[in-house]
């Protein structure tokens, strides 16, 4: 259909020509003093002019300023109906939390400011080139959040409100780096599961299940329609979003029993009001972020992560938070030690053994309930300070006898007929039920720097009587996720196969999340008989014998990048001792020892098909290079500025020498 400029620009509303060219401006006087005019920066004075220009009463300009930052996305009308959609439910309702916190600050005589940096949806970008921006976005957003905090020089405190996979880690990194400022994080909560249907993790496999004739078109359409049963909050499983909320509270950056609250409900809104009151008290007491995010707090978060059985993605985010806070960055050995020492106590999606949605974990007592059990084992440092202005010990003492704890458990029993002890178990009950720590870090001649597997998600049928998973088979090698998922959908993958997906680390795809693959293997009938190795990362709901973060990545010279279809691979995972290995053993016709395999791989050239995606954005290429010289994924894909500057200077000097050597000798 063609149209003219007149069709586009034709004015049908005469009101557009009612234009004013001047206005009286705000009435009243700024509360200026002689000292202010002589000594304050002009920016502070002009800021007051801006404040009244936006409608703030001049008589209330002397209140303490608190900056609220969030990942809000989308727009609603006055009835709450969508005018423009957000990227995901996780940031769709956080504006409501912003308003609750802002009102609380105003009522206390303060001045709230608000800023926004929206975030992407990892579910929406699965299997697309949008995933190439996912992990790099975290660093970008953290930088912008920090710049926004610093760009309001008159703020006395900051509140960060976020929910999901990259926005919340970015917010925690930003807040943790504000060492001398009181900060607090408000987690955005969770969406509810449908009364009848599937959770938002399983629903992402409808394409693979339909392609394998395990789901009808009508079933796929109906299930897909109702999976997000409420409009706000993170997904209903303990993926990256939910785990990040748990970690924020475990760090002491969020108020007690705030993680995993049901989005949109009154208990969720109250959390925002509590947080606003808390940050005001922190400012009054002179408690800042450096008093809260300490080495001991980082270790507490790692312990709670292990007890929940949290997402493997937090092994990228907790080190980055530690770096931002000026704390020691946990090494692989620290993660191994914590996971061996800490029992898993929580039974939720996707780990089980019973797949309770995260709302039930909240009602069962959430983070403080888990911490009560952990302190009985002596696994927590209870002396750490928290955003309540009290120590963790004082917070847990309150929780243990609180009416809130009792009421929440009663609601869970009344609404879902589930005893709280079935969701969050005592250490003895968890052991009796066979719950094991979640993460194992296999090494071997394929992964000399290590790798990660959520070993609890291996199907019990595949474990021997000692809890050991063992699989030796011929590799089917793929050099992109697209090739790998096509092979699954086209029936090229069979029970007993070992899939190797390489070239998908930071240098290849921005370390894309390959949930398409892991979820398909989880929910296809033969998937439990297939093993997956990759230098990419997984969603927080990674399942099956799926091993990611293999390091070094293929494009950084890692042995995994030298594998070829037809190679013999051996995988062994001890789910109880939390130990394992990934070995190349030659070929089926010429099997060699792991030591001999290591020599063969060292002499091989990289698989010629392994190369960066031609669609990798320049932004992501830059991120990959910067995080690589900063220590790579095992240091959290951070920007180590001192190291980056050192490498740049060394590079500049090498270039100068090279240029001088190429120049002809002057007479």
Structural key phrases:
single chain; 667 residues; alpha/beta; eight-stranded mixed sheet; globular
Task: Report what the structure shows.
This protein is an alpha/beta fold. It contains 26 helices and 14 strands. Helix 6 runs parallel beside helix 7. It starts with a helix and ends in a 5-residue tail after the last helix.
> What distance separates the N and C termini?
73 Å
State the strand order across the main sheet: 7-8-12-11-10-9-13-14
Query: What structural class is derived from the secondary structure elements?
Result: alpha/beta
Estimated helix fraction = 40-55%
Please tally the helical runs, counting DSSP H or I stretches of 4 or more residues: 26
Largest sheet properties? 8 strands, mixed
Total E-strand runs: 14
Mean pLDDT: 94
Low-pLDDT residue intervals, each spanning 5 or more residues? none
Principal-axis shape equals globular
| Alpha carbon gyration radius | 27 Å
How is the topology of this model organized?
Blueprint: H1 5-9, H2 34-39, H3 42-53, E1 65-70, E2 75-76, E3 82-84, H4 89-92, H5 94-107, E4 111-116, H6 134-150, E5 155-162, H7 167-176, E6 183-187, H8 206-211, H9 217-226, H10 240-250, H11 266-285, H12 289-292, H13 295-308, H14 314-325, H15 332-341, H16 358-363, H17 366-376, H18 392-401, H19 403-416, H20 427-432, E7 439-440, E8 450-454, E9 468-478, H21 481-489, E10 498-501, H22 506-509, H23 515-523, E11 531-534, E12 545-551, E13 567-574, E14 579-587, H24 594-603, H25 618-629, H26 641-662
Helix pairs in contact: 5-11, 6-7, 7-14, 10-13, 13-14, 13-17, 17-18
